[in-house]
Write a structure and sequence with these properties.
Layout: E1 22-28, H1 35-43, E2 48-55, H2 62-68, E3 72-75, H3 82-93, E4 108-111, H4 123-131, E5 137-141, H5 153-165, E6 179-182, H6 183-186, H7 198-208, E7 213-217, H8 229-252
Parallel strand pairs: 1-2, 1-4, 2-3, 5-7
Antiparallel strand pairs: 4-6, 5-6
Helix pairs in contact: 5-7, 5-8, 7-8
C-alpha cells in the first residue's frame, strides 16, 4: 500500500486556520424538498468559501434549486451513487475553482447529505477538530433516533470491518455520511467504493494511510429509513454494497 503527502499543484498553507478554505460538498439525488435549506444553511458556516452540489442524475428540480441557491452544481451522468459522485468531485477539485486557484493540503471538504436541512448548522462542531489540526477526518455521530429503524445488521457489519481492517478502530457511526476531511486525506481515499459502501471504505483507507479519524457527536438529523418495505429494500442494497466494499478492501490491502 502506498500513501503519499504532497503533489504537483497542491500547496501547504502556511497561514493557519484563517486562510483555510472550507468547501461544502453535497451529493444529491432527487432532493428538491431539502436541497435549498441545506445549501443556504451550509453556506453560513464558518470559513466556507464554496458550496458544491454533485447532482447524481436527479430527475426532479434538485440541480436547478441548488443553482438558484448559489451553489456550484456538478452534474453526473445518470444515477451512479455516492462513490461515483465523490470521484466526479475529486476530478473537479483537481482543476482550479473560481474561489480557489488550487486546493491546499490543509483545505477542508465538508461532506453533507442533501437532506440534513437546517441542522447543517451543527456541522460547525464537525469542522472544528479538522480546522485545529486535531484530526484529518471527523465523522458525525447523530443523536440516537427515537424512530424504529433496522436491526443493526449493516451497521454492525461495517463496524466489525473497520475494526478488523482499520487497525482496531472502534467506530460508533461507521456509515455516517457527514464528514469533514482535509483535501490531503480525501484525495488518497480513491478509488471510492460503489454507492452505499463508500463511507466504510473511506474510514478504512484513511486509517490504513495513517490519518487521524475522530468521531464527533453533533445535533444533526436527516431523513430516517423506517421498517417498511422501502426501508428493508434500501437496507438490503446498502448491505450488499458494504459487503462488496469490505471484500474489495480485504483483497487489495488498501
Amino acid at each position: 500500500m502506498t500513501c503519499y503527502h504532497g503533489s504537483v499543484g497542491v500547496c501547504i498553507d502556511p497561514m493557519g486556520v484563517d486562510n483555510v478554505a472550507v468547501l461544502v460538498c453535497i451529493p444529491a439525488y432527487n432532493e428538491a424538498e431539502t436541497i435549498t435549506e441545506t445549501v443556504l444553511t451550509a453556506r453560513a458556516l464558518p470559513h466556507v468559501t464554496e458550496v458544491l452540489v454533485i447532482d447524481d442524475g436527479s430527475t426532479d428540480d434538485t440541480a436547478a434549486l441548488a443553482d438558484k441557491a448559489d451553489a456550484m452544481v456538478i452534474s453526473g451522468k445518470g444515477n451512479r451513487g455516492k462513490g461515483a459522485a465523490f470521484e466526479l468531485l475529486a476530478r473537479t477539485l483537481e482543476q482550479p475553482l473560481p474561489s480557489r486557484p488550487a486546493l491546499c493540503e490543509s483545505d477542508i471538504l465538508l461532506l453533507l447529505d442533501a437532506d440534513v436541512g437546517s441542522s447543517a448548522k451543527a456541522a460547525a462542531d464537525l469542522l472544528e477538530p479538522v480546522l485545529l489540526g486535531q484530526a484529518d477526518m471527523s465523522v458525525a455521530v447523530f443523536p440516537a433516533s427515537q424512530q424504529k429503524a433496522g436491526f443493526g445488521l449493516v451497521v454492525n457489519t461495517a463496524r466489525e470491518a473497520i475494526r478488523r481492517l482499520g487497525g482496531g478502530y472502534n467506530a460508533q457511526a461507521p456509515l455516517s455520511g457527514q464528514r469533514a476531511i482535509t483535501w490531503s486525506c480525501f484525495r488518497q481515499l480513491r478509488p471510492f467504493a460503489d454507492r452505499y459502501g463508500v463511507e466504510v471504505a473511506m474510514t478504512i483507507r484513511a486509517l490504513r494511510c495513517g490519518f487521524t479519524v475522530l468521531e464527533v457527536p453533533v445535533e444533526m438529523h436527516h431523513r430516517a429509513t423506517g421498517r417498511d418495505l422501502a426501508g428493508f429494500i434500501h437496507r438490503g442494497k446498502q448491505f450488499l454494497d458494504v459487503k462488496k466494499a469490505i471484500r474489495d478492501l480485504g483483497r487489495s490491502g488498501r
